[in-house]
Amino acid sequence: MRKIIAIAVCKGGVGKTTTAINLSACLAAVEKKTLLIDFDPAGSCSGFLNFQSDKIESGIFKVFSFAKSITQVICKTELDFLDFIPSDISSPEIEERLIRLTSYVYLFKNILNSPELLSYDYIIIDCPPSLKGLTSIALIAADSLLIPIKAGDFSILALKKMFEYYYWIKSHYNSQLKIEGILRTMYESDTKAWAMTNEELVRGYGSYILNTVIPKNTTLTEAEFFHKPAILYNLKAIGSQAYLSLTNEILSGNPH
Ligand code: ATP
Ligand code: MG
């Protein structure tokens, strides 16, 4: 059964894009046919994988404006089992137009239900750090929500907001939406900040916390410079191994 996972939380710089790329690459490495979609107008995922907006002809937003079909914007990557759809927002005008198009709340869901996309095992959506608009329609189209967070009180506040939003989407538009889990990123086990964050997490969201943690690991950032997922840059690095563990946990677990 195909699964669509949206990676989202209303906080910037918590590892959404890093998780989207590395989880997708690890799923592909274990031969799950995976499609990664850069759904953030900032285009970090596209930049990371070397599909900068000046180099690409089209991406997901051409599909939204009916200028291209979904199959016309799918790009191959260096992993056989991983395909990619870039973000193609090249100007503020296009972003404005796109935001207007997101008022058709089931448009993205309908696009992802195109027959050509049914053969994927996983579709991973990298969302922007805001809630309205693109994140909404991604959650309406998704089967589950994966929430990366890093240490800190602001992260707990963002998590609270994200859960409120999740329940709102679930009750109004997508009753099937589940929580894939809360993923602790940039983890440092010996810090007071993480000890306090863990306490809050266990108190408020115990059953949603994934066992895997992604440690703070510079290999994950270095890999950006080589435009490669970490497993293709340095398989032995603790960051690569952590994303492989996350992949196993997601493959074997049941979302809530
Ligand atoms: P935005 O909200 O701006 O889209 P994001 O949530 O997608 O941000 P990323 O772009 O994935 O976050 O990560 C932010 C920065 O943190 C990047 O420079 C990335 O390399 C770094 N980073 C992410 N995860 C880790 C990690 N586990 N260890 C060290 N650095 C990390
Ligand atoms: Mg991002």
What does this protein structure show overall?
- This protein is an alpha/beta fold.
- It has a single domain (3-250), classed as 3-Layer(aba) Sandwich (Rossmann fold), CATH 3.40.50.300.
- It has eleven helices and eight strands.
- The protein has helices at residues 16-29, 44-48, 60-64, 92-101, 107-112, 134-141, 153-172, 192-205, 218-225, 230-233, 238-252; strands spanning 3-7, 34-38, 75-76, 82-85, 122-126, 144-149, 178-187, 209-215.
- An eight-stranded mixed β-sheet has the order 3-4-2-5-1-6-7-8, sandwiched between helices.
- Strand 3 (75-76) and strand 4 (82-85) form a beta hairpin.
- The two termini are 17 Å apart.
- Magnesium ion is lined by residues 16-17, 40, 44, 126.
> Mean pLDDT across all residues, rounded?
94
Shape designation = globular
The chain-level structural class is: alpha/beta
Tally the beta strands.
8
CATH homolog superfamily: P-loop containing nucleotide triphosphate hydrolases
The name CATH uses for the topology is Rossmann fold
CATH architectural designation: 3-Layer(aba) Sandwich
- Return residue spans where pLDDT drops below 50 for at least 5 consecutive residues: none
Order of strands in the sheet with the most strands? Answer: 3-4-2-5-1-6-7-8
Distance between the termini: 17 Å
Strand content is 15-25%
Q: Please compute the radius of gyration using only Cα atoms.
A: 17 Å
Give the SSE order as H and E letters.
EHEHHEEHHEHEHEHEHHH
Largest sheet at a glance?
Answer: 8 strands, mixed
CATH class category label: Alpha Beta
Portion in helices: 40-55%
Total helical segments: 11
